[in-house]
Amino acid sequence: MSLWVWKFGGSSVAGPDRIRHVARRVAEARREGHDLVVVVSAMGDTTDDLIALARQLHPEPPARELDALMATGEQASAALLAMALDALGVPARSFTGWQAGIQTEGPHGSAQVRAIAPERLREALKAGFVPVVAGFQGLSAEGHVTTLGRGGSDTTAVALAAALQAERCEIFSDVEGVFTADPRVVPDARLLPVISYDEMMELARLGAQVLHHRAVTCAQHNGLIIHARSTFSDHPGTRVVPADTIEPDRPVSGVTSDRHVARLALVSVPNVPGIAHRVFSALAEAGINVDMISQSVARNGHQDIAFTISDGHLAVARRILEPVVRELPAERLVVDDRIAKVSAVGAGMVTQPGVAATMFGALAGAGINIEMISTSEISISCLVAREQVDDAVRAVHAAFGLGAER
Ligand code: ASP
Ligand code: MG
């Protein structure tokens, strides 16, 4: 019998009717003769609600306890889906991450899967049960409950598919697959039938919420094809595959945005060695990831250093940088959390000139000012005012001719 790993996102299990719908889909696949391991996210906005609850009790909740709290969301949906399956006459068993043998390493809130010991899942399969695994969580070597970062249930599914040598790994959500842009923002966005691991990883890193970036890394590492599709239709969706299996016919494959960005600028710091090191090592020690960085040309022996971080880290970054500002010294620290990042991603841009010019032209044409620019081999990102970011996505998407043909 072939083994499939199926993962259902939060909106697919948002209430009893949807859970029942998922259960019916699973039951049908079973009837067709497939073995399934199902991974679930927390119901609807549960994770956000749990974080908000925690913040009502603590301004910066201890990471260990926040993980312990967040992990309950997925445990609830796993148990509920197992019940719904049982009600349909399909024997099922829910598993927490640690019961499923998922071992993690790294910090709370963004741990990585270190290893999987899937014996209990194999036993359950052998005994005829559908294992339903709580996504997004595992147990550290020290025995702490850890979570894998927002959207991390995808990674649970891919890691399990690799460990169990599943024949298929399908990630179900409320969208039909990976689009050239978020269809809620760009009505004529097109579904991509295939996309390469590298492009998908870059899109996920730059804000696209369809797949967790670590899930894509894990799939690439294991040579596993991820299939992203809709819970609510039979549409074939998007397959995430090795780059060498697709023809690169376009400079840009997709446009995405990230609103969870904050920019900090240290104004007028001395132009001497060691300043950047002092600033960024302080942030690194606190586990804060820095994204874009720019440093101005020095004037009168002073310059500005600006950089972006995830806006969730803003409070901590401010606190850490206060003494650094006094020590350097910098004239002041300027914070802007009304900004967002728009990015164009495409493996084809490596060989095609003029991609950056097209993107900047699109933004200029829409009257959108660029606050900061960064590039990678297969992406270009611009920082813009947050209230203009959807317009920016539409303008860039149109400029690269990504919309559906009419
Ligand atoms: N429930 C977690 C989140 O909302 C993990 C996931 O959905 O994959 O980020
Ligand atoms: Mg979720």
Describe the 3D structure.
The chain has helices spanning 16-31, 46-57, 63-87, 119-126, 153-163, 197-205, 213-222, 275-285, 314-327, 355-365, 389-399, and strands at residues 3-8, 35-40, 92-95, 102-105, 112-116, 130-134, 137-140, 145-147, 168-173, 194-196, 226-230, 238-241, 254-270, 290-295, 302-310, 332-345, 372-376, 379-385. By secondary structure, the protein is α/β, with parallel strands linked by helices. The protein folds into three domains: 3-245, Carbamate kinase (3-Layer(aba) Sandwich), CATH 3.40.1160; 263-337, Alpha-Beta Plaits; 340-399, 2-Layer Sandwich (VC0802-like). The longest helix has 25 residues, at 63-87. The protein is globular and about 75 Å long. The mean pLDDT is 96. Magnesium ion (MG) binds at residues 9-10, 41-42, 47. Aspartic acid is lined by residues 10, 41-42, 47, 73, 135-136, 150-153. One of its GO terms (molecular function) is ATP binding. Its EC number is 2.7.2.4.
